[in-house]
Design goal:
With 368 residues, the chain is of the alpha/beta class. It is built from 14 helices and 12 strands. A 7-stranded mixed sheet has the order 1-3-2-4-11-5-12, with helices on both faces. β7, α6 and β8 form a beta-alpha-beta unit. It starts with 6 loop residues before the first helix and ends in a 14-residue tail after the last helix.
Length: 368
């Protein structure tokens, strides 16, 4: 794909209309918004097997593949005459509910909601069909109160939501330090405070929090308030990679419209390729999309470090999702799940092969 900005060549293919929506970080909160956005399709473009595809994602940087793919028309280009309808969500559970209800067909989502949704349905509702992003999670602290890891004992550290991806990661890390915390109450050697990412910066500014284990851009927002990065979660993972965003699809939609799913995946792969080839332009595109959704763009001191900490990739990093499930089990937040069948990477690998790229691995958790 050309490294040149695609907007000029795709202007006739896509135009985005968005409703204001409060900016949040990945999957935390309770609201969802049906934006009823429909990208303009090319005149006489051929439809695939569905008239439209309903896509869900969050208005945050770890979902930039969706933000940029819609903003730049890269998803619509692959779908031809099949229209995109978008909905944005502030919570993983609400997106899973929308998928189960048929309100969306395909979604960008974090690992914990995908795991929980799959296990609660007995493995009948969704498949993970691609990766999207890795990284973008940091432990940031008040440098006046916490200078070393040992200083965390007795302090109040926020996570976005009880049992969410970052909450599980922090509880697991705490246990590895030899400290004890009750997973339900958050009380123990460290006080784990479940705080919505929308209010965490205000709580930190007021002095009621000593730090937070949070995704971007919340981590960089806190740093802009004077916090310091004590730990980047990427440093805890092999090759510094762990899944933060996957693409899921309802099993019924995958069965009935495999060509549409494949087209969305082609658009996602193309978008990630463009993001990685044009990071500054892609960052500006994502910020423009966020401004349309939230009414306010992220300032440079927030978006620049946040963007640098996220890796956009097609590989779902399946082994790290399996490890995250194990962490939740160890923390007492999840019964041992059977994740066999949570992945169907055949459509993605077909796209990757056509692009001359290596295939993605499902870590033995693929559909049989």
């Amino acid at each position: 794909m050309s490294a040149a900005r695609p907007r000029a060549t795709l202007r006739t293919l896509a135009a985005i209309a968005a409703l204001p929506l409060l900016l949040t970080a990945c999957g935390y909160g309770a609201e969802s918004t049906d934006d009823d956005q429909r990208a303009e399709v090319a005149v006489n473009a051929e439809k695939l097997s569905a008239d439209e595809v309903k896509i869900g994602y969050f208005p945050n940087l770890t979902h930039a593949t969706a933000l940029v793919g819609v903003q730049e028309g890269l998803l619509q280009k692959e779908l031809g005459g099949t229209e995109i309808k978008t909905s944005t969500f502030n919570a993983g559970p609400s997106e899973i509910e929308a998928l189960n209800a048929g309100s969306i067909d395909i979604g960008w989502i974090g690992p914990s909601p995908a795991i929980n949704g799959y296990t609660k349905s007995g493995g009948t509702n969704l498949r993970i069909v691609s990766g999207s992003a890795s990284g973008g999670v940091k432990l940031v602290v008040n440098p006046d109160r916490i200078k070393t890891v040992d200083d965390l004992k007795g302090k109040k550290i926020a996570t976005p939501q009880h049992g969410n991806t970052q909450d599980v990661a922090f509880l697991n890390w705490i246990a590895e330090q030899g400290w004890k915390v009750d997973a339900e109450s958050g009380k123990g050697d460290v006080s784990v405070v479940r705080s919505d990412n929308k209010v965490t910066p205000d709580a930190y500014r007021a002095g009621s929090l000593d730090g937070a284990w949070v995704p971007e851009p919340t981590a960089s927002k806190l740093v802009s308030e004077g916090a310091k990065v004590l730990l980047d979660e990427a440093d805890l993972w092999p090759d510094k990679k762990f899944v933060i965003t996957n693409i899921i699809v309802s099993q019924s939609f995958l069965k009935e419209h495999p060509d549409v799913v494949e087209a969305v995946l082609r658009g996602s792969v193309e978008t990630n390729e463009w993001i990685n080839a044009n990071p500054e332009e892609a960052k500006a595109s994502a910020n423009a999309a966020l401004e349309k959704l939230s009414g306010k763009a992220l300032p440079a001191e927030v978006i620049d470090p946040a963007w640098e900490s996220i890796t956009f990739l097609d590989d779902p990093l399946a082994a790290t999702l399996d490890a995250q499930a194990d962490h939740a089990v160890k923390a007492g937040l999840l019964e041992q799940p059977d994740l066999t069948g949570i992945y169907d990477l055949a459509p993605l690998n077909k796209v990757l092969k056509a692009e001359g790229k290596g295939e993605a691995d499902d870590a033995g958790l693929g559909a049989k």
